[in-house]
Design goal:
The complex is a heterodimer of chains A (325) and B (258). With 325 residues, chain A is mainly alpha-helical. Helix content of chain A is 76%, strand content 2%. In chain A, strands 1-2 form a two-stranded antiparallel ribbon. Chain A is globular. Chain B is α/β, with parallel strands linked by helices. Chain B contains eleven helices and ten strands. Chain B has a six-stranded mixed sheet with strand order 6-7-8-3-9-10, sandwiched between helices. Classes of the chains: A mainly alpha (325), B alpha/beta (258). At the A-B interface, helix 9, helix 10, helix 11 and helix 12 of A face helix 2, helix 3, helix 4 and helix 5 of B.
């Protein structure tokens, strides 16, 4: 497989992301919702490495997103740091915390791992609410400064769109690179058969820990950017429900597919926006859609659609030959 | 010179001895078979040799150094590969990718280098692919390389496991019932494959129920019964050993033979 073939999908994504703001510079869905999509794609792609490819589960990933956001917020507003070193410190903190909890937690499997990560996420969220002196408690923190890149202030929706586009695409590329490598195959091997992976020389405990930490670090970066983009954060953005939402994005698009995670993040960010017109029934419709997808396309919407359409093409082709006779 | 030496090995599960006081040596370059009735402890033995189980007693030495305390992945890097009685295929990957995982310990690049796709990674990737294709070719599976593993029938999956284990470039290959579930044609192909693996210089330790296959390919046969050594010898010696016949065919036949 040539390098070009490997990146066909990615190049298409780059073109789409670049063209959208050119075609619709004033569209709310592009410049405002688009930035939110950027954060969610980052989180979903990062979590997909852990859930979709390594076959593990984390119901506490919002905690890492929140830790990055709070590290940036606290260091910039309370200590007057500039955003970039604050982001770096957030990253280091998340790296260390994720590394420390990864070894004991990742010995667990299935429901037990789900419970452990869930517990971790809830504990971190409680700290955000209770450590009022640092985090501002349930009221959150405001006045978080925006970002500046070499004198270029990221001070408009369109500029944020550009920043998030680059970061998001970099995350997608990172994920694509990993999957198609020795380390990526080791990850997928852990999912396929842990014992077989071990007997082939894969240090499965290390592999799981590494990808958990990487996934957490990407979430932390997304969190820091989120804090600077919103200028205001509160614990609600990083609670248990958001963890579940990110998992849903991954599952919705299709496990073990980077583009599936991208797709899931886009759909799950856009849907509530679109469904707003139904007012009170929004949650009901969203729930119905998710349930239907899980029942009828259990392998995920993106993966399901891709397989469905290739299957349909294959079935149509012999039919075309038959009518040609 | 023995490549693998097992001394007074024992494994008990909650007081029940699955393997007790077992000693044997596998000479380098030989095909060594372990046979025995169901429950004789063959798979337990394999799991200890590959580091999956920790022995309760005794020692395992590979190429002169002890395997005690090593994790399965560390045992693998010493040069021991295995196949499984119940298939352990990575069904979430293609056939080629399955075998590429086999090359894991022959390459170096880690997660972060791969994420950035540094130049060395691409070169290593090509090397891994070449190794994996060679192993597939050797097992007669090259034409199936790009197929998803879950699209292959059972018999071919068993050979994928062998290719995957060979891709690790092992010195010792542990094969756990490779003929189980195969038809006669497939078993004949397997026999040739095992011989070619031996000819390649890989030492083979074979656990197998198919006596025809065992007697055709093995240099030495070890008979296990209730976790202990019942007999050890060449195929001819084993076939004529009254204890073995008794263990396999029951006590009455023993009288008949006598």
């Amino acid at each position: 497989m040539s390098a070009l073939h490997r990146l066909h999908g990615f190049l298409a994504l780059v073109v789409a992301v670049a063209l959208l703001p050119v075609l619709f510079p004033d569209n709310y869905f592009v410049t405002v919702v688009g930035v939110t999509i950027g954060f969610n794609v980052m989180l979903a792609v990062a979590l997909n490495l852990f859930i979709g490819f390594a076959g593990q589960i984390s119901l506490g990933h919002a905690a890492f997103f929140g830790m990055g956001a709070y590290a940036s917020a606290i260091l910039t507003t309370r200590y007057g740091w500039s955003p970039w070193p604050a982001m770096g410190v957030g990253l280091v903190i998340v790296y260390v915390v994720a590394l420390l909890i990864s070894r004991p937690i990742l010995k667990l499997k299935g429901h037990y791992l789900a419970m452990a990560t869930l517990g971790f996420g809830i504990i971190v969220n409680i700290i955000m609410v209770e450590a009022v002196d640092w985090t501002g408690g349930p009221d959150g923190m405001s006045g978080i400064p925006g970002l500046e890149l070499f004198g270029w202030a990221v001070d408009s929706d369109l500029r944020w769109y550009a920043v998030m586009a680059v970061v998001m695409l970099a995350t997608v590329l990172l994920s694509l690179n990993i999957i198609d490598s020795r380390a990526g195959r080791a990850l997928r091997a852990v999912h396929g058969s842990e014992v077989a992976a071990q007997t082939l020389g894969v240090d499965t405990a290390r592999v799981k820990s590494q990808v958990f930490v990487l996934s957490a670090c990407l979430a932390s970066l997304a969190g820091s950017l989120f804090a600077h983009q919103q200028n205001f954060i509160s614990p609600v953005s990083f609670n248990f429900f958001f963890s579940i939402e990110v998992v849903t994005m991954v599952v919705l698009g299709g496990l073990a597919s980077t583009y599936g995670a991208v797709f899931g993040a886009i759909v799950l960010t856009l849907l509530p926006q679109v469904l707003v017109v139904f007012e009170d029934y929004e949650v009901l419709i969203l729930g119905t859609i998710l349930m239907s997808i899980m029942i009828f396309l259990p392998q995920g919407l993106f993966v399901g659609l891709v397989r469905g359409s290739t299957g349909l093409l294959r079935r149509l082709r012999p039919a075309a030959v038959a009518t040609g006779d | 010179m023995a490549l693998l030496e097992v001394r007074e090995l024992g494994k008990a599960f909650g007081g029940v001895a699955a393997i007790a006081d077992l000693s044997f040596a596998v000479p380098e370059g030989s095909i060594y078979a372990v046979i025995g009735p169901n429950g004789a402890g063959k798979t337990t033995l394999f799991n200890m040799l590959s580091g999956v189980y920790v022995p309760s007693d005794g020692a395992i030495e590979f190429d002169g150094s002890s395997l005690a305390g090593l994790e399965p992945h560390q045992v693998a890097t010493r040069g021991i590969s295995r196949t499984f009685q119940n298939l352990q295929i990575f069904f979430n990957m293609s056939v080629l990718e399955n075998v590429m995982v086999g090359c894991h310990q022959r390459a170096r690049s880690g997660l972060y280098r791969a994420a950035l796709r540094l130049p060395g990674v691409v070169r290593e990737e090509q090397q891994i692919r070449a190794w994996a294709l060679e192993a597939l070719e050797f097992c007669g599976l090259a034409h199936l390389a790009e197929r998803p593993a879950d699209a292959l029938p059972y018999g071919e999956l068993k050979r994928v496991e062998i290719a995957r284990a060979l891709a690790a470039d092992p010195r010792l290959l542990l094969m756990d019932e490779p003929a189980a579930g195969l038809n006669d044609t497939e078993t004949a192909e397997l026999r040739e494959l095992i011989r070619r693996i031996g000819a390649r210089g890989v030492t083979v330790l074979l656990v197998e129920h198919n006596m025809g296959l065992v007697m055709q390919v093995s240099d030495t046969v070890l008979v296990l019964d209730y976790g202990s050594k019942l007999a050890e010898g060449t195929t001819t010696e084993i076939q004529n050993d009254p204890r073995v016949i008794a263990a396999y065919l029951g006590g009455e036949v023993q009288y008949a033979v006598q």
